[in-house]
């Protein structure tokens, strides 16, 4: 059955249906007010979709069109929140093989420090015209900074002075080394609003420029997020699906389920899972608290980790992401030989079989005692993904505050950086 709302949250196990929402009512309401009324440094994403952003969209589309007209490939340099969202949407909405008719190839670097990766990327660029978009809010993160050093030299060697036109910088409007370099060398810039942190920034130029270049309709994506920003302003937790999801997660966490497993049945969503994992992992995992966000892609992973989920340590609950309509499909052909005994499936669509497998998996896991939350949306498209992005961001902020941790900082990330720098400078 299609969901009756844009996004419907359902718990599939009877024993978890009786979550006591009344217990959460007042804390959810006070966090809601804190979020909605806060003018602090990190909540700019909350109302951004409701603001007039026509000029910004116009300039992003103009640069995207210029890139599409003058390049075969856009190289995006960024890590964490500065690349995961763009990659997530691009992979979810562009073809599995080949590129979107209205887009060009978009590749990513600066999210790791593999010498092999960057060397092979440079080799792959040889016969292609290139633009680069370097994205870093702080402007000094090691992975993208190193990649930019290499790519900038590559662009200058190849295009001479014209390289300036082909380098687009997305960074903080006021501070950071990248900002200084952009000013010094006259690179065109897009800004990450100061009050929006990396993992909440996919709907800013951070995500929108690469997504537009890949051929995905950013206006529809933004329209979906606008709808979510309006609907999810509801204070009453039983009417607000994002808050309901946050409360269900919290209730399961307090029951001892410490791992949330995000699962879906469409491989195109693998990178969307990664975006979700970073959003929740960096927002909640602090002060010795937080659910560990893990992800699986079914049915592939049913043949890898399905055994553990069904029967292993009872530490996890599952959040099943289900889109009722997927834009492409294939029907099972008739085969007169029927040696594989599959003729009973003749003319059934792969998506229909996949959806049935989802239903069976959910039932089996729920019956096996794994709590299963289902998040249902009508269609895998720009509009519904825009809605879902905002839904998760709002749920994440609520979830973190329910745990009494700050959703918008990431002090723990500094520990490895400091150790690495100590070692590198030795
Ligand atoms: O969510 C965050 O703030 C982080 O994941 C950052 O996006 C990531 O560390 C990259 O930072 P920057 O954009 O400053 O290079």
Explain what you see.
With 426 residues, the protein is an alpha/beta fold. The protein folds into two domains: 8-37 and 222-412, Glucose-6-phosphate isomerase like protein, domain 1 (Rossmann fold), CATH 3.40.50.10490; 48-216, 3-Layer(aba) Sandwich (Rossmann fold). 46% of the residues lie in helices and 14% in strands. The protein has 15 helices and ten strands. The protein has helices at residues 22-37, 44-47, 54-70, 84-93, 115-124, 142-159, 177-185, 205-213, 218-231, 241-254, 270-284, 306-311, 350-367, 382-402, 413-425; strands at residues 7-11, 73-77, 105-109, 130-136, 167-171, 188-191, 259-264, 292-297, 316-325, 372-379. The strands form two sheets. A five-stranded mixed β-sheet has the order 1-10-9-7-8, with helices on both faces. A five-stranded parallel β-sheet has the order 3-2-4-5-6, sandwiched between helices. Strand 4, helix 6 (142-159) and strand 5 form a beta-alpha-beta unit. Helix 11 packs parallel to helix 14. The protein is globular and about 65 Å long. The structure holds 5-phosphoarabinonic acid. 5-phosphoarabinonic acid binds at residues 79-82, 136-138, 141, 144, 197-199, 282, 410.
């Amino acid at each position: 059955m299609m969901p009756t709302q844009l996004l419907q949250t359902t718990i599939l196990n009877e024993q978890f249906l009786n979550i006591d929402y009344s217990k959460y009512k007042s804390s959810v309401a006070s966090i809601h007010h804190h979020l909605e009324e806060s003018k602090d440094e990190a909540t700019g994403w909350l109302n951004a979709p409701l603001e007039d952003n026509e000029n910004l969209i116009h300039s992003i589309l103009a640069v995207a069109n210029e890139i599409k007209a003058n390049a075969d490939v856009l190289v995006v340099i960024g890590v964490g929140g500065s690349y995961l969202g763009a990659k997530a949407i691009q992979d979810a909405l562009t073809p599995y093989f080949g590129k979107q008719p209205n887009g060009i190839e978009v590749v990513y670097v600066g999210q790791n420090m593999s010498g092999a990766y960057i060397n092979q990327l440079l080799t792959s660029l040889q016969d292609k015209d290139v633009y680069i978009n370097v994205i870093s809010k702080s402007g000094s993160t090691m992975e993208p900074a190193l990649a930019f050093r290499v790519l900038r030299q590559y662009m200058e060697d190849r295009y001479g002075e014209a390289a300036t036109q082909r380098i687009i910088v997305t960074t903080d409007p006021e501070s950071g080394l990248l900002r200084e370099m952009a000013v010094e060398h006259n690179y065109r810039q897009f800004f990450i609003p100061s009050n929006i942190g990396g993992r909440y920034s996919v709907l800013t130029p951070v995500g929108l420029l690469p997504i537009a270049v890949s051929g995905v309709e950013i206006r529809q994506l933004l329209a979906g997020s606008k709808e979510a920003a309006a609907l999810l302003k509801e204070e009453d937790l039983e009417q607000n699906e994002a808050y309901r999801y946050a409360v269900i997660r919290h209730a399961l966490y307090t029951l001892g389920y410490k791992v949330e497993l995000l699962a879906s049945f469409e491989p195109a969503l693998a990178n969307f899972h990664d975006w979700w994992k970073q959003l929740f992992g960096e927002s909640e995992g602090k002060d010795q608290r937080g659910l560990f966000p893990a992800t699986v892609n079914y049915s592939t992973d049913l043949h890898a980790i399905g055994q553990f989920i069904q029967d292993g340590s009872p530490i996890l609950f599952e959040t099943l992401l289900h889109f009722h309509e997927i834009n492409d499909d294939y029907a099972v052909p008739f085969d007169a030989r029927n040696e594989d005994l599959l003729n009973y499936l003749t003319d059934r669509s792969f998506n229909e079989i996949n959806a049935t497998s989802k239903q069976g998996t959910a039932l089996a896991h729920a019956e096996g005692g794994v709590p299963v939350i289902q998040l249902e949306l009508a269609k895998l498209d720009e509009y519904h993904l825009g809605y879902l992005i905002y839904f998760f961001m709002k749920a994440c902020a609520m979830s973190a505050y329910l745990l009494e941790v700050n959703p918008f900082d990431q002090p723990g990330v500094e520990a490895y950086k400091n150790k690495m720098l100590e070692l590198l400078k030795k």
